């Protein structure tokens, strides 16, 4: 499959930003796997239909403010203009256990503009798998990074990590409901010499900061996002219109127009 698909009519180049989703995809420690089975089969009925049992926070997925903020907007309540618009892919390479700070965002090019969709690619999507490394050792956003994105009035924030926050700021570590990865705090301390409770004292603080500002988030960005490192593009996401929905799998894509001539159809 080619990394870039070119529309023959408009000349738009379309880039996939989602991981493949299906039975047995990587799932958060402590959560059930995606389970799919064919309830109707071609050999028996001449048609195919699947039944699915899933946690919504699997694969490339969108989080509504309701996910971490009580009485906030659900997926169905998010204005549709949040799902489409111009923005940037910030290439901020990070190693295990590192933190993405406001200073990192400020230094990244091209500069984030007010109202942008911001995609942060630290290279972690290459590790996407059912692995201790992928979930437990990933980088994450600091509180000041989230506050910086809020100050930029971002339309949507997407990351290629399994979660917005550093794993030691989530229930994977010694926070509420955790640790769901019991080895994680000691492994972090052994590797870094840092105290996880001191370095990551607030639970899901970066994610809560974004969602409390009404900014939906996409976690586990993948696909061919590397093509757009350090570039501006137009993005589109397609979440479910899910009443009371805190999250759902989402197809996420980018569009660029090398000719600069494409315009949206008038609809007439």
From TrEMBL:
<dbReference type="Pfam" id="PF04199">
    <property type="entry name" value="Cyclase"/>
</dbReference>
<dbReference type="InterPro" id="IPR037175">
    <property type="entry name" value="KFase_sf"/>
</dbReference>
<protein>
    <submittedName>
        <fullName>Kynurenine formamidase</fullName>
    </submittedName>
</protein>
<dbReference type="InterPro" id="IPR007325">
    <property type="entry name" value="KFase/CYL"/>
</dbReference>
<dbReference type="GO" id="GO:0004061">
    <property type="term" value="F:arylformamidase activity"/>
</dbReference>
<dbReference type="GO" id="GO:0019441">
    <property type="term" value="P:L-tryptophan catabolic process to kynurenine"/>
</dbReference>
């Amino acid at each position: 499959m080619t990394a870039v698909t070119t529309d023959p009519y408009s000349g738009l180049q379309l880039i996939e930003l989602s991981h493949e989703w299906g039975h047995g995809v990587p799932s958060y420690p402590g959560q059930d796997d995606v389970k799919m089975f064919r309830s109707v089969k071609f050999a028996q009925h001449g048609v195919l239909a699947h039944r699915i049992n899933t946690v919504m926070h699997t694969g490339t997925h969108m989080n509504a403010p309701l996910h971490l903020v009580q009485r906030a907007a659900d997926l169905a309540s998010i204005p549709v203009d949040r799902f489409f618009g111009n923005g940037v892919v910030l290439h901020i390479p990070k190693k295990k256990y590192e933190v993405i700070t406001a200073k990192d965002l400020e230094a990244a090019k091209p500069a984030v503009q007010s109202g942008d969709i911001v995609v942060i690619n630290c290279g972690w999507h290459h590790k996407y798998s059912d692995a201790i490394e992928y979930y437990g050792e990933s980088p994450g956003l600091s509180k000041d990074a989230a506050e910086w994105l809020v100050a930029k009035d971002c339309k949507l924030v997407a990351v290629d990590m399994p979660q917005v926050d550093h794993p030691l700021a989530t229930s994977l570590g010694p926070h509420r409901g955790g640790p769901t990865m019991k080895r994680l705090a000691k492994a972090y301390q052994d590797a870094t010499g840092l105290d996880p409770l001191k370095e990551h004292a607030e639970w899901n603080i970066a994610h809560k900061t974004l969602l409390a500002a009404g900014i939906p988030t996409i976690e586990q960005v993948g696909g061919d996002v590397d093509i757009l490192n350090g570039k501006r593009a137009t993005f589109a996401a397609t979440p479910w219109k899910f009443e009371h929905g805190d999250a759902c799998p989402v197809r996420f894509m980018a569009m660029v127009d090398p000719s600069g001539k494409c315009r949206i159809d008038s609809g007439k």
